[in-house]
Write a structure and sequence with these properties.
Layout lengths: L9 H6 L2 H14 L6 H14 L3 E5 L2 H11 L7 E4 L5 H9 L3 E4 L11 H6 L5 E7 L8 H11 L2 E5 L7 E2 L2 E2 L6 E5 L13 E5 L2 H10 L21 H32 L4 E2 L6 E2 L5 E4 L3 H10 L16 H4 L17 E5 L2 E5 L3 H9 E4 L7 H14 L5
Helix pairs in contact: 2-9, 3-9, 4-5, 4-8, 9-13
């Protein structure tokens, strides 16, 4: 069988900078400063300049970044947050953790990001925020969400965990809302040696509150003025991320080259997933929509190609949420037109019908697009897909 082509190849990604990682570790061990030191301060400043945000706060994970942002915005029990059902579970988990109610609206068929019209139709007097996910590094028409939130007096939070370095109309994603949140999980475009996250904002009051929350609610005078969390990005991860940030644009450019090749070769074979025409994606994932998705995945696997399936089901069908659904006869339908209300441990979650998200989950497949993917490997992947669908001459 031909050699395996993995979806991710973290060992190859880190092997070329192993000596630099060793120097980082030695430098920090020698300093004796492991938390809240100069590496974190430098990383926050450098990432802020890169994103065009006045404040960046490093935290322990992308999930923590979401939770702290929601908490700092005062969102909690009785409040609703509109988001997409086609996302990683952490997006919704964060809403639940602060005691608020997730409200699901359907996605666009082209970008697979939240549909602004569907989003607006779910707004109620209890709505406090829109949590916009830039899926796979793509985005929809961000300006519509900025205007929508301004019109209804809502906070806009960008979950940019997959979109570091992606651009909308000349500006980095994560810099449009009240805050943008990022994940540095090892498979992300900007990866830590473990977990990590950050919040970016140009609101000094919000930054101050998040800064307090990540240190047990402690203010600059050392008083604990609120209950908070223990969630500071450590010095080793901050230093590793500084190194990665310097390479990020070059690696994102490589991903875009790979994506363009896929686009050209697969345009007549699969339905392509792209961001809005004004979006320059970082292609954290390369996704296509195809019939017989599972058969294609099996075929590629047998020929040594690993693929992903993000996501196999909308979030509201995950067991943690689904098992708390009320019987249909007991569901209440409020005047806003929301078609289902299902019981959740923290309260209720709401959703409209989301047919695009549900159909997408049956057709989506994610192909390797890591910067270390060779042209020969990509050509083999393309050839196998074309052969499977009978389009190769």
């Amino acid at each position: 069988m031909p050699s395996s082509i993995p979806l991710y190849d973290i060992r190859s990604n880190t092997r070329c900078v192993a000596d630099e990682y060793a120097r980082i570790l030695n430098r920090i061990i020698t300093s004796g400063r492991f938390v809240a030191g100069p590496e974190l301060a430098a990383f926050e400043q450098e990432l802020g300049c890169y994103l065009g945000a006045s404040h960046v706060l490093g935290v322990k994970s992308g999930t923590d970044a979401l939770v702290l942002t929601l908490d700092a915005l005062g969102i909690g029990p009785g409040d609703e947050v509109i988001t997409t059902p086609f996302t990683f579970f952490a997006t919704v988990e964060a809403i639940i953790r602060v005691g608020a109610t997730p409200v699901f609206a359907d996605i666009e068929s082209g970008t697979l990001c939240l549909d602004p019209a569907a989003c607006e139709s779910t707004i109620t007097p209890r709505t406090k925020a829109v949590l916009l996910v830039h899926l796979f590094g793509h985005c929809g028409e961000v300006s519509e969400f900025v205007e929508l939130c301004a019109k209804h007096g809502l906070a806009l939070i960008e979950d940019a965990s997959q979109a570091i370095g992606s651009i909308w109309q000349g500006r980095k994603l994560g810099s449009f809302g009240n805050a943008g949140t990022f994940s540095f999980y090892p498979t992300k475009n900007l990866a830590a040696l473990g977990d990590g996250g950050a919040v970016a904002t140009s609101d000094p009051a919000l930054a101050r509150t998040i800064g307090q929350l990540r240190r047990h609610g402690r203010d600059e005078q050392g008083q604990h003025i609120r209950t908070g969390y223990n969630s500071q990005l450590d010095e080793i991860q901050a230093a590793v991320l500084r190194l990665g940030l310097a390479r990020l644009d070059a690696e994102n450019t490589r991903r875009r080259v790979l994506a363009a090749r896929y686009d050209e070769a697969l345009a007549g074979v699969a339905r392509l997933v792209r961001g809005h025409r004004d979006c320059v994606s970082n292609y954290h994932q390369y996704a296509i929509l195809v019939p017989e998705r599972d058969k294609l995945r099996d075929y590629l696997s047998k020929h040594g190609v690993e693929t992903g399936c993000y996501y196999e089901r909308p979030v509201y069908l995950e067991p943690a949420l689904e098992r708390h659904a009320l019987p249909e006869a007991n569901c209440q339908v409020p005047e806003t037109g929301i078609s289902a209300i299902c019981n959740l441990q923290s309260g209720l979650y709401h959703r409209q019908p989301c047919p695009v998200a549900e159909q997408t989950s049956l057709e989506i497949i994610n192909l390797p697009i890591r910067p270390t993917l060779t042209e020969a490997e990509q050509e083999r992947i393309i050839l196998l897909i074309q052969r499977f669908y009978g389009t190769y001459d």
